[in-house]
Design goal:
Elements: H1 2-22, H2 32-52, E1 57-60, E2 71-74, H3 76-100, H4 111-127, H5 131-149, H6 158-185, H7 200-217, H8 225-232, H9 237-245, H10 247-260, H11 265-288, H12 292-319, H13 323-358, H14 374-387, H15 394-406, H16 415-447, H17 464-482, H18 484-494, H19 501-505, E3 508-510, E4 513-514, H20 526-548, H21 576-579, H22 581-586, H23 588-591, E5 594-601, E6 619-625, H24 629-652, H25 657-678
Antiparallel strand pairs: 1-2, 3-4, 5-6
Helix pairs in contact: 1-2, 1-4, 2-3, 2-4, 3-4, 3-9, 3-10, 3-13, 3-17, 3-18, 4-5, 4-9, 5-6, 5-8, 6-7, 6-8, 7-10, 8-12, 9-13, 10-12, 11-12, 11-16, 12-13, 12-15, 12-16, 13-14, 13-15, 13-17, 14-16, 14-17, 15-17
Domain NADH:quinone oxidoreductase/Mrp antiporter transmembrane: 128-408
InterPro entries: ComplexI-like_HydComp (IPR052175), ND/Mrp_TM (IPR001750)
Transmembrane segments: 33-52, 80-101, 113-138, 158-183, 204-225, 237-254, 266-288, 308-335, 380-403, 423-448, 468-488, 528-548, 660-678
Length: 679
C-alpha cells in the first residue's frame, strides 16, 4: 500500500504540472488536472480503507527536505479521515472536470495548481508524524486556499486577504503549540507527545492547538473567513474547500485528543460553549441570506459548531476519565463530519451547476429552478434535507447521536460540566429547528417553487461527469444513513487510537439497531426507517388509489409555495426574502436586524401609470438587513491599530540587505532564547 500512496502523490504532482505546462488554452487540457486528481483521490481512499483494516503503511521521508527522521504513517485514525476526505473528493473532482471543460470558466493558470496543492496537502497533513512536515503541509494548504479565493479576476481581494490572514493565525498558533510540546518532549515526532506530564506548558500548548484547528473549521470568533472565502472560490472548487479540505481541521482536533489525552477542564467547557454559539450563529445567518452560495457557506459554520460540540463532549469525557462519554461524543462528531462532507460537497456542486446555467445565485431569481435543472435541483434538495437532519438522510443519524450525547449530562456530578452541557443542548436544539426553516426555504421556494423570472433563460444542466458526481453524492447522503450500523463499525475502528474499539462499538445494540453507547437509554434503527417509511408512503398512496375511486388525481393544482393570496403573480409572489422575515424578527438580538421604511416617491405617487398620482398614493420602500456581529464589534475596531502597525512595519522595509540580515538574526536569537527558556 505504500506504493499506492506514492502513486497518489505522484498523480497530484502530474496534475500540478499539467496546469503549469499545458495551461488553459486547449479545451482538452483544462479538465486533465481534475481527472488526475480524481484518480489520486481514488487511490488515497483505497489506502485509507487498507489502513482501517490494520494494514501497516509507512512512507519514509528521512532527510527529505531537511526534516530529519520523518514518515508519512497511516494509522487507523489517519485512515478514517483519508476515507472521509477523499471518498467525497472523487465525485467533486469529476464535477470540477465537467465545469472546467466549458468555455470561459477557467481563464488563467493557477486554479488547477491550487486544487492539486490542496489535495496533496490534505494527504500529507493526515499522515504526517513529524512537526515540520505537518506544518509545511498546513501552510501549503493555506496558500492553496488563497489561490482559490483570489483566482477570479475583477472581484474584490478582501475574501482572499481575510482567508490567508486567518490562515496565518492558524499556522502561528499551531507552530507555537507544537514547539512547546517539542521542547517538553525533546523530539519533533508526534508519538513522543503522548508521554508528556500534565503541566501548565502542556495545557497552553493544548489550547493553542485547539485554536489553530478552530480557525480552519470556522469556530466563532475566527469563522469570518469561511463565508467570504467559500463565496469567492469559483464553481465546484467551493466543494473542494468546504467538503474535502475542511476535514483536516477536524482531524487535527481528533489527533490532539489522541496525543495529549486529558485536556484542562476549562478548555473543554470553553470549546463546548463556543461550539453551541457557533452552530446557532451560523444557522441564523444561513436562514436569512439571500444568496444561495452564502446560505451554503454559513451552514458550514453551523455544522462546524455541531461537530465541535460533539468533540467537546468527548473532551469532557476525557477530563472526567469516562471512556463511554468520549466514545459517544466522538461518534456523534464523526458521524456529523461524514454527513457534512457529503452534503456540503453535494450542495456546492449543485450550486455551481445552477450558477453555470443561470448566471446568478440570488435566491429571488432562482425560484423553481429545479423544474428545469433536474440533476442540480435534485442534488440541492437532497443536500438541504440532509443538513436539515430529516429521516432517511445521514444528517438525521448524526444529529440524533449528538443530542443523545448532550443528554448524558446527568452522568457527571460536577455543576461545572452539567450546566454548560444543558445550555449547549438548548442551543443545539434551537439550531436544529432553524436549520429546518433554512433548508425548507431552499427546497420549497428554490427547487419546487413557482418558476422564476429567469426560467426562460436557463441553459443546459451540468454535463455527464457533473451528473455522475451529483448522483454519487446524493446517493451517498441516503445510503450512508441506511447502513448506519456498518458506518458505526468503521468509525469504531478508526477511533481506536483515542478510545477503545469496544466502547464505541457498544453503540450497536443489534444488527440494525443503534444506541448512544450507554445501554438502556434509547434506541434507533435508521436501516429499518429506510424500509418502513417508504413502505408506509407507498401503502398510503395505494389506499388513496383504492378508496378515492379515480378522484385522487382530480384535484385542483396550484404551484407549490404560493402566497396566501391566490391570484398573486409576477414579482409580487412570495419570495425567499419574505420567507425569512420572521427569522429576522425572532433572532433580532443575534442578527442585529436593521429595518428601514421610507417613502420612495411622494410627488407623483411613485409610478407614471399610478391611478392616484398624488402624495396620498405615495409608494413606500422597505429594506431589512442583518449585521455580522463578530466582524462588526471585534474585527472592525482592530482595523485602525492594524493599519498603524502596518505603516510602522513599512518603515523597516528600507531595501537594505544588511538590515534584513539583522532582522533575521534578531528573530533567530529570540526564537532560540524562547526554546532554551522553555527547555
Amino acid at each position: 500500500m505504500t506504493a499506492v500512496l506514492i502513486a497518489a502523490l505522484g498523480l497530484l504532482g502530474l496534475a500540478l504540472l499539467a496546469d503549469l505546462v499545458l495551461g488553459v488554452r486547449h479545451a482538452w487540457a483544462r479538465p486533465l488536472p481534475y481527472l488526475l486528481g480524481a484518480a489520486a483521490a481514488t487511490l488515497l481512499t483505497i489506502v485509507g480503507a487498507a489502513g482501517l483494516t490494520g494494514h501497516p503503511i509507512r512512507l519514509s521521508l528521512d532527510a527529505f527536505l531537511g526534516f530529519g527522521a520523518a514518515d508519512l504513517t497511516v494509522d487507523r485514525l489517519s485512515a478514517l479521515f483519508l476515507v472521509i476526505s477523499f471518498s467525497v473528493a472523487v465525485p467533486v473532482s469529476l464535477a470540477c472536470a465537467d465545469w472546467a471543460v466549458r468555455p470561459h470558466r477557467v481563464r488563467a493558470r493557477g486554479l488547477s495548481c491550487a486544487y492539486a496543492l490542496a489535495f496533496a496537502s490534505i494527504a500529507v497533513i493526515v499522515t504526517a508524524d513529524h512537526v515540520f512536515v505537518f506544518l509545511f503541509a498546513w501552510e501549503t494548504l493555506t496558500v492553496a486556499f488563497y489561490l482559490m479565493t483570489a483566482h477570479q479576476r475583477g472581484c474584490t481581494a478582501t475574501p482572499a486577504i481575510v482567508t490567508i490572514a486567518l490562515g496565518k493565525v492558524s499556522g502561528a498558533a499551531l507552530l507555537v503549540g507544537l514547539l512547546l510540546l517539542a521542547a517538553q518532549s525533546r523530539s519533533f515526532s508526534f508519538p513522543s507527545f503522548t508521554t508528556l506530564p500534565h503541566t501548565g506548558v502542556r495545557d497552553a500548548a493544548y489550547a493553542l492547538l485547539v485554536l489553530g484547528f478552530a480557525v480552519k473549521v470556522g469556530l466563532v470568533p475566527v469563522h469570518v473567513w469561511m463565508p467570504r472565502g467559500y463565496r469567492a472560490a469559483p464553481g465546484p472548487l467551493r466543494a473542494v474547500m468546504a467538503g474535502v479540505a475542511v476535514n483536516v481541521g477536524f482531524y487535527g482536533l481528533w489527533r490532539t485528543l489522541a496525543l495529549l489525552h486529558q485536556p484542562p477542564p476549562w478548555l473543554a467547557v470553553v470549546v463546548l460553549l463556543l461550539g453551541g454559539a457557533t452552530a446557532l450563529l451560523g444557522i441564523a445567518h444561513a436562514t436569512v441570506q439571500t444568496d444561495l452560495a452564502e446560505v451554503v457557506a454559513y451552514s458550514s459554520v453551523e455544522n462546524a459548531g455541531l461537530i465541535t460540540v460533539g468533540y467537546a463532549v468527548a473532551m469532557i469525557g476525557a477530563a472526567a476519565s469516562m471512556p463511554p462519554l468520549i466514545a459517544v461524543g466522538l461518534l456523534a462528531a464523526t458521524l456529523q463530519t461524514i454527513a457534512h462532507a457529503l452534503a456540503k460537497s453535494l450542495l456546492f456542486t449543485a450550486t455551481a451547476g445552477i450558477e453555470d446555467a443561470t448566471g446568478t445565485t440570488e435566491l429571488d431569481d432562482l425560484r423553481g429552478v429545479g423544474h428545469r435543472l433536474r440533476f442540480s435541483g435534485t442534488g440541492l434538495a437532497i443536500g438541504a434535507l440532509t443538513l436539515a437532519g430529516l429521516p432517511l438522510t445521514a444528517g438525521f443519524v448524526s444529529e440524533w447521536f449528538l443530542l443523545e450525547a448532550l443528554m448524558q449530562q446527568f452522568r457527571l456530578g460536577a455543576l461545572g460540566y452539567t450546566l454548560p452541557l444543558a445550555v449547549t443542548g438548548a442551543l443545539v436544539a434551537l439550531t436544529a429547528g432553524f436549520a429546518a426553516v433554512a433548508f425548507v426555504r431552499i427546497v420549497g421556494l428554490t427547487v419546487l417553487g413557482p418558476r422564476g423570472p429567469r426560467d426562460a433563460e436557463l441553459a443546459r444542466d451540468t454535463g455527464p461527469l457533473g451528473k455522475l458526481a451529483l448522483t454519487a453524492l446524493g446517493a451517498g447522503c441516503l445510503a450512508v444513513a441506511a447502513v448506519a450500523p456498518l458506518q458505526v463499525r468503521v468509525i469504531a475502528a478508526g477511533l481506536g487510537p483515542i478510545v477503545p474499539r469496544d466502547a464505541t462499538g457498544s453503540a450497536i445494540k443489534g444488527p440494525w439497531v443503534l444506541q448512544p453507547v450507554f445501554p438502556g437509554f434509547s434506541i434507533l434503527s435508521p436501516s429499518w426507517l429506510a424500509v418502513v417509511l417508504p413502505a408506509l408512503l407507498a401503502g398510503a398512496g395505494l389506499l388513496c388509489l383504492v378508496f378515492a375511486r379515480g378522484r385522487m388525481f382530480a384535484v385542483r393544482r396550484v404551484p407549490a409555495w404560493r402566497s396566501a393570496t391566490g391570484g398573486v403573480e409576477g414579482e409580487n409572489q412570495y419570495k425567499p426574502f419574505a420567507f425569512t422575515n420572521p427569522t429576522r424578527k425572532v433572532l433580532a438580538n443575534v442578527l442585529l436586524t436593521r429595518a428601514e421604511l421610507r417613502t420612495v416617491e411622494r410627488q407623483s405617487g411613485g409610478r407614471d401609470d399610478d391611478p392616484r398620482p398624488d402624495a396620498a398614493g405615495a409608494h413606500l420602500g422597505y429594506t431589512s438587513d442583518v449585521v455580522e456581529a463578530v466582524e462588526q464589534f471585534l474585527y472592525r475596531p482592530l482595523l485602525r491599530p492594524l493599519r498603524a502597525a502596518v505603516r510602522t512595519a513599512k518603515r523597516l522595509q528600507n531595501g537594505r540587505l544588511d538590515a534584513y540580515v539583522g532582522y533575521l538574526l534578531i528573530a533567530f536569537v529570540a526564537v532560540l532564547a524562547l526554546v532554551l527558556i522553555l527547555a
